[in-house]
Design goal:
Layout lengths: L2 H20 L8 H10 L1 H15 L9 H25 L4 H8 L2 H13 L5 H19 L6 H8 L2 H26 L5 H27 L4 H6 L1 H24 L2 H7 L3 H11 L7 H20 L1
Helix pairs in contact: 1-12, 1-14, 2-10, 2-12, 3-10, 3-12, 4-9, 4-10, 5-7, 5-9, 6-9, 6-13, 7-13, 7-15, 9-10, 10-12
Protein name: Membrane protein
Keywords: Membrane, Transmembrane, Transmembrane helix
């Protein structure tokens, strides 16, 4: 199995696990504070991953350039903006719609990479990207819309527009991260990805932490009061980001994000076997469509 595929599958698992644990922080932390703990507690975990990699695999750290730091800043800011847009979409009572349209990130990334970076894929990969995104949309919207007309109507809702904006921000974030890993001069793509994780998480801690300090100063003590849960969220977030960054270092963003749609399968499995919720027929159909899309992406690769 290619490194980028294994890393992407692990990224989806870690992200689902982190999201499940982060639910425990709801009611304990504000939205901004909950975002900060992902980065704040993720930095030491990222440093640990770099140290462990250097110890057991070997290699040496790369000297960052100004271009590299710029791409890191853009990637970190893009993730923050995308997360905030997604949360804004929830505020319009459109959790499912906002989430669904944010998942168009893979298609948006593919189009941006094609136009600006000249990245091209085989026809089968394009079909796979479309199928996997379509399966995710189906899983998110099934039972909430009755026809294609309803889907079109949902597209102009504020929640959908914010969701599409979030997808665009996440796509640009992923492209910036890929550019950052390629801007380093080290020969080991995995080590470059881990270095980039530490740099971006540090920048994000400073960016969103400064915003929290300026707007919600009284939330600062809560970051440390909830350290037991927050540290777990930060650790899983760092591990997930390390896997995403590794995938981006080895393969085009659109392909990584398309395979990453398996995240929704982990969500369904978590729902079924840990929360003991029954899976609906639409869940099974949507899951099979997502898997089919991922298979086509890999075959087209």
């Amino acid at each position: 199995m290619p490194i980028w595929v294994a890393a992407t599958l692990l990224a989806g698992l870690f992200q689902t696990w982190r999201t499940a644990l982060q639910q425990q922080l709801r009611g304990q932390l504000s939205v901004n504070a909950a975002a900060v703990v992902r980065y704040l507690y993720g930095v030491p975990v990222g440093v640990l991953l770099v140290v462990l990699y250097l110890t057991f695999i070997g290699g040496s750290l790369s000297a960052p350039s100004w271009d590299y730091l710029l791409f890191c800043a853009l990637g970190g800011l893009g993730q923050i903006i995308g997360t905030n847009l997604l949360i804004m979409s929830f505020g319009h009572r459109g959790f499912a719609v906002g989430t669904a349209y944010s998942k168009t990130e893979a298609v948006q990334a593919a189009l941006i990479a094609l136009v600006f970076l000249g990245e091209s894929f085989g026809l089968l990969s394009w079909v796979g990207i479309a199928v996997s995104v379509g399966g995710t949309l189906y899983l998110s919207l099934a039972g909430r819309v009755a026809s294609l007309r309803d889907v079109a109507a949902a597209t102009v809702q504020p929640s959908a527009l914010y969701g599409l904006g979030a997808g665009l921000a996440f796509a640009l974030c992923a492209l910036a991260i890929r550019a950052a890993t390629q801007a380093l001069d080290g020969p080991d793509a995995t080590l470059r990805a881990l270095e980039t994780l530490v740099v971006i998480n540090t920048m994000q801690t400073l960016m969103q932490g400064s915003w929290l300090l300026a707007t919600e100063r009284k939330s600062i003590p809560d970051l440390f009061r909830t350290w037991r849960s927050s540290a777990q969220v930060g650790a899983l977030s760092a591990c997930g980001s390390a896997c995403w960054f590794t995938g981006f270092a080895y393969a085009p963003v659109a392909l990584v994000r398309a395979v990453g749609q398996v995240e929704i399968l982990f969500t369904l499995l978590f729902s079924r076997f840990f929360l003991r919720e029954r899976m609906k027929r639409t869940d099974v159909i949507g899951a099979l469509v997502v898997v089919s899309g991922v298979v086509l992406v890999l075959l087209g690769r």
